[in-house]
Amino acid sequence: MISKSPVTMDDPRVKTVHCSGSAYEIGFTHGSAAATEVHHNIGMYSDFFGETAKVTWAQARERAVTKFLPTIQRQWPEIVEEMRGIAAGAGGGLTLDDIVTLNVRTEIAFTNYTDGCTSVGQKAADGRVFLAQNWDMIPELSQGMVFLHIAPADSDLVLRFIGEAGIVGKMGMNSAGFGLCMNALRSASLNPSHMPVHVLVRRLLQYATSVDDALAIIDKYGLASSINLVMADKGGKVGDWECSPAGIFSIPLQVGPGYDYVAHANHFYAPGRPATLKDHPARDSFSRLARMEELTELDAQKGVGPSFESLRARLSDQKNTPPAICRAIPPGATGTDRLVTLSTSIMDLTGGTAQVTIGRPCDDLPIVHWSF
C-alpha cells in the first residue's frame, strides 16, 4: 500500500522515503516522493557518462536496455516492476528505460572511473560486529541522495540504506542483522549476463539474513561488473569479498589481540584472483587503505575497540588531504576529479542499529539514527 505521507526529514538536507507493499508500489512511492532527486540524478549522470564513458544519455540508455535489462528481467522481474514504478512516480516523461540506465551506472561508467570510498569491518573482543564506510563522489550527487526504508510485501525483512534517488540498492542493513559496504573497483571486466551491481546489492539486502546467505546469492546470480563488498551479520561473521565477473575473492581478516578487522579502498588486493583480472585505481586508494589499517591497529594497541565514536574518528582522518579518508575537493580540480566525502555510514550489526551522517565526518554534522 502506498503511504500518503512517505517522507520524513531525519537529516535536514536528505529525504527519508518510507516504502512498502508490492514492487510497483515501492517504486511508485520512491519515485513520487523523490521526483526532484530522480530527475536531478538523470541530468547529473548524463554529464557523468559523457565525461567518463564518452556516451550520451541516449547511448547509455540504449546500452542499458539492450545489454542489461534482459538479464534483470530474467533474474528478478519484480525489481523491474519496481523500476517501472519509480519512473511512473517521478513522472516528467521518464520511462522504465531511464531508470534501468541509472541502475546500471556502474556497468556504464565505472569500468572507466572509480569513486573514492573507504570501508572497514571489525569484530570487537566481546563479539560485537561493526561496518563503517565513507562514500566519496562528485558533489553534485549530494542533491540526489535519499534515505530509503523499504518493507517489501514478499519479504519478512525491512531494509534501510543511504543511496541515490532512482537506484534500487546501496550500502545499508536489514532487520535480520545483515549489512554491507561497497567500494567501487575500476576494471574493464564486464558480463551482461550477470546481475548489475546495484540490483545485486538490493537483492542481498532484501533476502540475505547472514553473510553466508549473501555469498550464496552472489554465487547464484554473478556480478555484471566489479565491486568490493565488506559484509557482516549479527551472528558475528565479518569479511571482505572482491566480486567481479571473474569470480569472488576473499580477503583474509587481520587478526590481533582484541580485534579482527578488514579494510578496503578502491583497488583489488585479494589473494588468488586471476592475473587477467586487472584494475586501474587512483594512487590515493593505496594510501587510504594503509591509513585505515594504521588507525585501526593504533586503536587496538590503546585498547580502543570498534564503536560508533572510534569508527567515526577513523573516518574523520585528514592525513594526506585532500585525498584523505575524509576527502576534500582538491584545489583547482574540475569535473569528475572533484571527489568529496558525501556520507558516512556506521552499522552495529549485533545491536541492529546504525548512525549515518551527510557530509564530511570531520565536520560537525547531525547524526541520523537507524534501529531495528
UniProtKB/TrEMBL annotation:
Gene3D superfamilies: 1.10.10.2120, Penicillin V Acylase, Chain A
Pfam families: AAT (PF03417)
InterPro entries, alphabetized: C45_proenzyme-like, Ntn_hydrolases_N, Peptidase_C45, Peptidase_C45_hydrolase
Residue stretches making up the Peptidase C45 hydrolase domain: 126-361
Protein name (record): Peptidase C45 hydrolase domain-containing protein
